[in-house]
Amino acid sequence: MKLITVAGPPSSGKTSVILRLIECMNMPNGSIGVVKFDCLTSFDNLCYEEAGIPVQTGFSGKICPDHYFVSNIEDAVQWGEQSGFKLLITESAGLCNRCSPYINGILAICVIDNLSGVNTPRKIGPMMKFADIVVVTKSDIISQAEREVFAFNIKQVNSMAKIVFVNGITGQGAFLLSKYLQQARDIHTLRDMKLRFTIPTAVCSYCTGETKIGEAYQMGMMKKMEFEKI
Known about the structure:
Blueprint: E1 2-7, H1 14-25, E2 32-38, H2 44-50, E3 55-59, H3 65-82, E4 87-92, E5 107-113, H4 120-123, H5 126-129, E6 133-137, H6 144-157, E7 162-165, H7 174-180
Parallel strand pairs: 1-4, 1-5, 2-3, 2-4, 5-6, 6-7
Helix pairs in contact: 1-7
């Protein structure tokens, strides 16, 4: 089974890209599955179910989404294996820009939309920097000059990534993206494999439900600002 990880900021068009991608791959029904990782809620499962694509959705809730992803990705792979999929796609939404749910040896795609701001590629950290492919959506309603500047800023962050422009509505560009997916490797487990980047430190009192403000309630890994006197 091939595994592909797709990540990106909320509402960047990840689900639409995946649906158009699956259409282009022309694989038998039931041979592709999707696991959706989200924070609080999601309705993307309805889109997958309508398309006849088996989907599982997990919500991190008050747990760091990246930790939640890493804790469950091996179980997701085993679900895909037991279901007999030829391809499993994981979609990670709601992750902060510090997150990077990419694994060494596993094809990684970052989806970002052209309307998010011309400097957004420079604001996204490991999720952009360590992707193999950067898919840019919503490019049909901006100028060619804006597209080129956006692509330039992506290259400033990740010069090695392939950049593919995909229209999530018409599917334009999805066929080219499907060709790149042929390089995805076959796996049966992720055991002993490594993440491409460390996940955020997230063991503090606020991670575990504390709501009161003040040093007396701050325990675990904390990072304090330094304020200069005026």
